[in-house]
Design a protein that fits this description.
Layout (H helix, E strand, L loop, with lengths): L2 H9 L4 H6 L28 E5 L2 H4 L12 H6 L17 H15 L3 E5 L2 H4 L13 H12 L3 E7 L5 H5 L6 H18 L5 E6 L1 H9 L12 H25 L5 E6 L4 E3 L4 H14 L1 H9 L4 H7 L8 H7 L6 E4 L5 E5 L6 E4 L19 H13 L4 E5 L17 H19 L4 E7 L18 E4 L4 E4 L1 H12 L4
Parallel strand pairs: 1-2, 1-11, 2-3, 3-4, 4-5, 5-7, 6-8, 7-10, 10-11
Antiparallel strand pairs: 8-9, 12-13
The protein binds beta-D-fucopyranose.
């Protein structure tokens, strides 16, 4: 354990929902402005904009062996030496499984109106398929009831990367049967939860779990597949999404809304001219060819198929129809831009501009600053695919989150990041780009995959040794934004 962790723990004073209410961070409510200060009303977000936070099952729940849960590929992966930076696992994590009431109270104290969580497939089907675990959904029943009681609208994600290990043993995402199994699991969850959970996301960031899990091997299941097999995994992932959309429609309560939550690869115009904007749209369509583009257009782009050549996936027209089943909304996870582009006369019509080595980033080196992505990602999606309802299903930042002498976490860097992102998001809504809500990643510090626990993304600090929760300055910032439905 790093020695400064002990020091940090000793300095913690405030915790929980009460702490945020009593925080000395200051707010419009606790520190009124002098009466003579002129204050023009700031342009706000659209009325009814849904502000929330997001988490995922393996990252927060813990309780890895409770109520009949089966092992997932992340249990296996974290058990292999050298896979996780600090050698940690999600077995206990931040114990959300047992502390969900406290965590819902925290959401309420921030003023969040929505919560996006994921359901652990191996809790429901410990073997991936077959008979459902009768206790599998109990935790989610309790959580959803608690949320509704607190006036917080639940949004459930069906898959946030924790594939049942039993399915991996039978070929994992290389097998078409896994897509089918996902459809069956989606049908079961929809039949049991959609009386109260009215919005469902199918798969979180398929680009990430496919590529980090099957190309670079950095994430579970840690494979490095050759291109042909990798493209087949990609195809099975989008197929699974389509089968789940159909399953939710067939087995869910009428009117349940369903769509993907994908980390759209976003190209930004390096300079905002009409030509560069067009080029950025073209680039975004190609960058997402095997994911959002095929889901929303029902075909792989010619350029992508030509590039894949003999390594293109095997697929049928019938599968393309399933993959492009009509969705009710599109969730976009937006962190860093993928590239800046300039228009080009030559095909394909855009030239990527490399990131200079001096380009700033947050604590995670992949988190390059580019808050304009919060404007361009939804705008490109709305223009390219005529999407009518968009949610930002994730956005947030990793920061050092040092505890200061008074026990508080003054994460002004995260506040700066969020304020910038939200300014660009506001530009989008002001121009009538149809963004309906925003889920901040994350409510709590948690298990950040291969980075383990050292990388913190929460609005609420967690002392992993004591499970003590301490809202950071960014929680006070977010509460202000929500209460005003505006940035200032
Ligand atoms: C996203 C993941 C989420 C979290 C954030 C930081 O790619 O969906 O689980 O790890 O990044």
């Amino acid at each position: 354990m790093p020695s400064n962790l002990t020091r940090r723990r000793a300095l913690l004073t405030a915790a929980g929902a009460a702490a945020l209410a009593a925080t000395t961070y200051g707010s419009a409510h606790t520190a009124p402005r002098p009466a003579q200060t002129p204050r023009r009303p700031a342009p706000g977000f659209p009325e009814g904009f849904r502000w929330g936070t997001a988490t995922s099952a393996y990252q927060v729940e813990g309780a890895a062996h409770e109520a009949g849960r089966g092992p997932s590929i992340w249990d296996t992966f974290t058990g292999e030496p050298g896979r996780i930076r600090d050698g940690s696992t999600g077995h206990v994590s931040v114990d959300h499984y047992h502390r969900y009431k406290e965590d819902v109270a925290l959401m309420k104290s921030i003023g969040a109106r929505t919560y996006r969580f994921s359901i652990a497939w191996p809790r429901i089907f410990p073997e991936g398929t077959g008979t459902a675990n009768p206790r599998g959904l109990d935790f989610y029943d309790r959580l959803v009831d608690e949320l509704l009681e607190a006036g917080i609208e639940p949004f459930a994600t069906l898959y946030h990367w924790d594939l049942p290990q039993a399915l991996q043993d039978r070929g994992g995402w290389e097998s078409r049967d896994t897509a089918q199994a996902f459809g069956d699991y989606a049908a079961y969850v929809a039949s049991r939860l959609t009386d109260r959970v009215r919005q469902v996301f199918t798969i979180n960031e398929m680009q990430t779990f496919v590529e980090q899990g099957h190309e670079t091997g950095n994430f579970a299941p840690g494979l490095k597949l050759p291109l042909g097999r990798l493209n087949q995994v990609r195809h099975h992932a989008v197929l699974a999404h389509g089968l789940a959309v159909q399953a939710v429609r067939a087995s869910g309560r009428r009117g349940t809304k369903v769509g993907p939550a994908e980390n759209i690869a976003t190209a930004l115009p390096a300079v905002e001219t009409a030509e560069n904007i067009k080029a950025a749209e073209l680039a975004t369509r190609e960058l997402n060819a095997p994911y959002l583009t095929v889901m929303l257009e029902g075909r792989y782009t010619d350029a992508w198929l030509a590039k894949a050549g003999r390594d293109a996936p095997r697929f049928t027209d019938q599968e393309l129809k399933i993959i492009s089943s009509k969705v009710d909304f599109v969730g976009l996870n937006v962190y860093a831009p993928s590239q800046y582009v300039l228009a080009s006369e030559a095909a394909p019509g855009f030239t990527p501009v490399p990131f200079p080595s001096s380009h700033p980033h947050m604590a995670s080196s992949w988190l390059l600053l580019g808050p304009e992505a919060l404007y361009w990602a939804p705008r490109h999606a709305a223009r390219l695919w005529q999407v009518k309802d968009i949610f930002i299903t994730e956005n947030g930042a990793s920061a050092a989150d040092e505890i200061s002498a008074d026990g508080a976490v003054y994460d002004v860097d995260r506040v700066m990041y969020l304020r910038n992102c939200l300014m660009h998001l506001q530009r989008a809504t002001a121009e009538a780009v149809p963004v309906r809500g925003y889920f901040l990643w994350s409510l709590l510090d948690n298990f950040e995959w291969a980075d383990g626990y050292a990388t913190r993304f929460g609005l609420v600090h967690v002392d992993y040794a004591t499970q003590k929760r301490t809202p950071k300055l960014s929680a006070a910032f977010y509460r202000e934004v929500i209460s005003r439905n505006a940035l200032a």
